[in-house]
Amino acid sequence: MAKITAITVQKKDNDRFNLFVDGEFLFGVGVSTVAKNNLYINKDISEDEIEKIRIEDLVDRVYLRVSDYAINSHKTSKDIINYCRELLYKKADDWFPKDLFNELKESLPEQILQKLIDNGIVNDKIYAEMFVEDRLKYRPRSKRMIISELIKKGINVEQAKETVENIEIDERKIIREILMKKYHTDKITRQDNKKISFLAGKGFDWDTISDVLDDE
Fold first, then answer.
1. Distance from C-alpha of 126 to C-alpha of 47, rounded to nearest angstrom
2. What SS3 state is found at 93?
3. Which of 52, 84, 175, 181 has a C-alpha 20 to 30 A away from that of 35?
4. pLDDT for 171-182, tens place per residue?
């Protein structure tokens, strides 16, 4: 059984402490870790307890960093997983032993994500709804393209389709707006191949495009 021999405040961060066991520096821990585990000088501590404290503190530390990232602006679950893995990669050998990286990158991001979801910080459904409303207001485009963009953002296919279908989207009106912005007119005929190709590139199908043709 080892013994805690010193707990000192870190010079660069008053909310973190250096933990010494049997006279040797072990690792840094946050103030919440010290409190939750009732750490104090001369306390006996086992190897299992040490590892538990190490991981617990790392989870808290990563969560705080990732939650700051998530709160700054709305993020998808995919954004959180990617950011968390990048953070772990950058902090290997600083926040934790590098040989733990492969294990942590598989388990910790999902754990952090679930905690953010439980705390209402990350919500893919709300993100998708806000994304669609933003697109329709500032960069209108077809339903098909919006769904494709949502999927690229990490929203699953079913959620993306459901969100778009639940929001009233007048694609004919959007086509007129896009034509006016691009060509300074909302008129289009069957002979306007350039305009038709442009609209098709924006994700509109022929049936929808044909509904706005002025020669029908």
1. 43
2. coil
3. 84
4. 898 999 889 888
